[in-house]
Design a protein that fits this description.
The protein is mostly helical and 93 residues long. Helices cover 82% and strands 0% of the residues. It is built from two helices and no strands. The chain is rod-shaped.
């Protein structure tokens, strides 16, 4: 029986493989860190929104005023979250 092609038995270059694993682990940690930061920021923005809505309610603002304030807060939250996503994408690249 003839021998198999040596390519089938050559081990992968370990230093390169280890470097790749380390790089993957660094990226995984970075993604996890940005997820935590994003969740924290989202929670803080939600808290601010609730506080401001409560202040508006206490002041007895009209429904139009509450709707306008809520729309403004929603818009600012969306802009903030989009900026966080952009920063996250830049850090992944």
């Amino acid at each position: 029986m003839g021998g198999l092609h040596p390519l089938f038995f050559s081990p992968p270059p370990l230093p390169q493989l280890n470097e790749a694993y380390e790089e993957v682990e660094e990226h995984r940690q970075s993604v996890a860190q940005w997820k935590r930061k994003t969740q924290k920021a989202h929670g803080e923005m939600s808290d601010v929104k609730m506080i401001l809505e409560e202040q508006v309610r206490r002041r007895g603002g009209g429904e139009h005023f509450r709707h306008r304030e809520r729309s403004l807060l929603d818009s600012k939250m969306k802009n903030f979250m989009e900026k966080m996503r952009q920063v996250h994408r830049r850090n992944e690249a």
